[in-house]
Specification:
The protein has four helices and no strands. It is mainly alpha-helical. The longest helix is centred in the N-terminal third of the chain and has 33 residues.
Length: 128
């Protein structure tokens, strides 16, 4: 029975990860539209989000293990700028337009995440 529970947990985590990437890609596509990026497609946004997440993991985890707090912070900042360069390359646009699209997707994504956390807490009856 433990194997089935572990399998369900792994599938739920994988599903949440894929849903998160899809939501980020949609928000990035929307941000690219607002930043007037002409060569935008949802597939390019999906690829940019996936590559940015892979780069972030390979930067943040090792730096966080070597120097826990400053390394994690430095890895996050470096990963953010690397993701903008990835966006600029995939969308074939300027650094500034990629920065605008990325900031829009990040801010709206965090607002959605905060709203989901609050709604989940309210649904579970958790109060401050």
């Amino acid at each position: 029975m433990e194997f089935a529970t572990l399998t369900i947990f792994i599938l739920m985590v994988l599903g949440a990860f894929l849903l998160s990437i899809l939501l980020e890609a949609i928000l990035l596509y929307w941000g690219a539209a607002l930043a007037s990026i002409q060569s935008r497609t949802l597939w390019k946004a999906f690829g940019a989000v996936f590559l940015s997440n892979v780069a972030a993991v390979f930067l943040i985890v090792p730096l966080g293990l070597i120097i826990p707090i400053p390394g994690t912070g430095a890895g996050t900042v470096i990963a953010f700028f690397l993701s903008i360069l990835i966006l600029a390359g995939i969308f074939q646009t300027s650094f500034t337009r990629a920065l605008m699209a990325s900031i829009f997707a990040w801010v709206i994504g965090k607002a959605i995440l905060l709203a989901l956390i609050i709604l989940s807490a309210l649904a579970l009856g958790i109060t401050a």
